[in-house]
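Students often ask why we bother encoding 3D structure as a string. The short answer is that it lets us treat folding as translation between two languages. Here is a chain of 257 residues written in the first language.
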Amino acid sequence: MHRPVVGIIGNSHLINNEYPAHAGGRMNSEAVSEVCRCLPLLIPADPRLVSVAELMEVCDGFLLTGGRPNVHPEEYGEDETPAHGAFDRARDAITLPLVRACVARGQPLLGVCRGFQEVNVAMGGTLYPEIRDLPGRMNHRMPPDGSLEEKFALRHKVQFLEGGVFHRLLGAPEVMTNTLHGQGIKTPGKDIVIDGHAPDGTPEALYIRGARGFTLSVQWHPEWQAGQDPVSRPLFEAFGAAVRDWAAKRRGFAQSA
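And here it is in the second language, the structure alphabet:
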């Protein structure tokens, strides 16, 4: 029996600044294969090439990855400014309706960094263009220099709601995480529950209230050393279990039809 399929949202990328490609970080695929125990499938996030309906039939769950481009502010009713940075409108056109379709259907999704922000926008929420410009906030961006180990190093605490979903899953009310993002949640979308915050008040963990499927999403990058990290591993294990459960139910329905 084949492994359940997790669609990994790819990002537009230029190889050598000239050859257009769809790309995905290898650590995302490794986390899905080795920790979720699912089959990783890279998705070219472009509505000219794929549709949400097709993706939901091919894939059992979705990993909404991080990415350098930001969700376009038009998607949450604001004007574009230089602070909003680069965009990927093709990815917006796939991921935002995909999130809403997964929530409606109960199909599992895990949002990471940009994916965390996409989940919020898809549900009607808004974003700050640059967290570090806000009074009292720290710089959450990736350090510009250093090795990967230094860039993905643990940099701040995340405190969860006492007895909440993340507290129960991770077995601790507070954990240490990396931080590699510029934007952040301004106002939560409909039914978005902010379940974890950084010390400066920045939202770091969420889920969707009343959703039938797995909707846990985080602002940090748990794919880094997902197999060894005590915070990342249980998150991906829980996501993998939800995907396998969804796949088993879907196969059961297909066999009985």
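Translate back mentally: The chain is about 30% helix and 25% strand. Keep this in mind for the problem set.
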